[in-house]
Amino acid sequence: MNKNIVCIGAGYIxxxxxxxxxxxxxxxxxxxVDINADRINAWNSEDFNLPIYxxxxxxxxxxxxxxxxxFSTDIESAVKECDIIFVGxxxxxxxxxxxxxxxxDLQYWEATAREIKKFATTDKIVIExxxxxxxxxxxxxxxxxxxxxxxxxxxSNPEFLAEGTAINDLIDPDRVLIGGPQDAxxxxxxxxxxxxxxxxxxxEKILTTNVWSAELTKLAANAFLAQRVSSxxxxxxxxxxxxxxxxxxxxxxxADSRIGPxxxxxxxxxxxxxxxxxxxxxxxxxxxxxxxAAADYWDxxxxxxxxxxxxxxxxxxxxMFNTLANKKITLFGFAFKADTGDxxxxxxxxxxxxxxxxxxxxxxxxxxxxxNARNDLSDLSGIDYVEDExxxxxxADAIVVMTDWRHYPTLDWKRIxxxxxxxxxxxxxxxxxxxxxxxxxGFKVLNxxx
Length: 450
Ligand code: UDX
Ligand code: UDX
What we know:
Blueprint: E1 5-8, H1 14-24, E2 30-33, H2 37-43, H3 57-64, E3 69-72, H4 75-81, E4 84-87, H5 107-119, E5 124-128, H6 136-145, E6 152-156, H7 166-171, E7 176-180, H8 184-198, E8 206-210, H9 211-242, H10 246-254, H11 275-288, H12 292-319, E9 328-332, H13 347-357, E10 361-365, H14 370-376, E11 384-385, H15 389-393, E12 398-401, H16 413-419, E13 425-428, H17 435-441, E14 444-447
Parallel strand pairs: 1-2, 1-4, 2-3, 4-5, 5-6, 7-8, 9-10, 9-12, 10-11, 12-13, 13-14
Bound molecules: uridine-5'-diphosphate-xylopyranose (2 copies).
One uridine-5'-diphosphate-xylopyranose binds near residues 159, 272 and 336.
């Protein structure tokens, strides 16, 4: 009989991943538990007002919730009933003590491991879903297996889904990675985990490795993606200085099949919960193993990203006659990318703070992320949060497009021009609008890398 599954942590990773696992494994019961009762209530809400926005997620949850997918705060019963335990609790960058600002804060992970141990009455396979530093699995196995009669086998199954495309990424992944101990018990546990995904993923796409390779691969994969974004953004500055066009350059670079076209879009820099945290983690790992040049190398990916946001503000400053005080600037988009309401590490946050430092009258519009924006900037006063783009643009001296929301190019830009102060500036930091059309209307236009 197929084993039942519980995931601890009902966040951006746990929720969508378990919904798809439940859909594809109708013969297994799948539980998602969380200490946050509000979050669980939202997952269970009658009108499917789920705690996270993700295209296609509601349909999957509608299909399986109450059938074989259950959300609850009862960690104890779920751990007792399930032999396979995924852990998807958050692992933010540690803000205190040793490794502050770089290492992962593992306190939630460890607390969760101790809870699993407290409630378990039979052998368990514990699967890391959270991104963790290399060798965490070994530490967790040591905690779990210390003076107990149950046997715990710890696997690493990092998640590669990107927000905004999570459901597609889960249903049709490039690869699934499962790392585990290479002894007999480990191999059996790996096969149990493989079976969950083999219900819909072709077997050759399910890659198995030792546990440390899996942990390191997740950090390395995110670092490589972040590095591509920083690389193209580094070229963007040079394009602005020389008259080259970064979109043209990226297109031709990406046509080389050795390089490929993805993750070469210049913009305001990367955001999201993972890239910065994971690169910093890699920096910390390199430092701890005495590999200082490697640490500096990866650290530069983050520095380049910060520089990109600082550059947006300096260019506005220069373009707006070297003073921003009392001017109104409207940020179009606060989410770290389109199709999500997530604002963790969003470039808009940094730009908003730099603008407020310059005494800008700031207005922010976003179709999905305004509640998070309010929360993130709650220490700053005087910012307007306006859902309607036309209202948000009223009397503005400049608009800065920070998120590439799909509908932005289709807005009535003539109408926006009419309600703004003149000269009216659009800084399209995502290069997603038709610059020629904007210039025809009368806007001054700035782009990244042009
Ligand atoms: C995930 C991964 O865990 C993280 O390592 C990765 O790098 C990014 O994605 P995510 O799903 O985005 O995190 O985190 P979040 O949305 O914060 O969800 C974590 C959930 O775990 C929260 O709902 C929180 O309440 C819950 N939690 C946390 C517990 O149930 N128990 C705890 O002890 C701590
Ligand atoms: C990322 C990884 O893609 C995913 O595999 C991993 O599991 C978690 O981290 P996510 O953070 O959801 O996913 O978003 P992603 O689509 O990777 O975008 C990250 C950031 O890079 C966004 O701010 C995005 O706007 C930016 N980006 C991406 C660019 O600026 N240019 C690009 O070409 C691509």
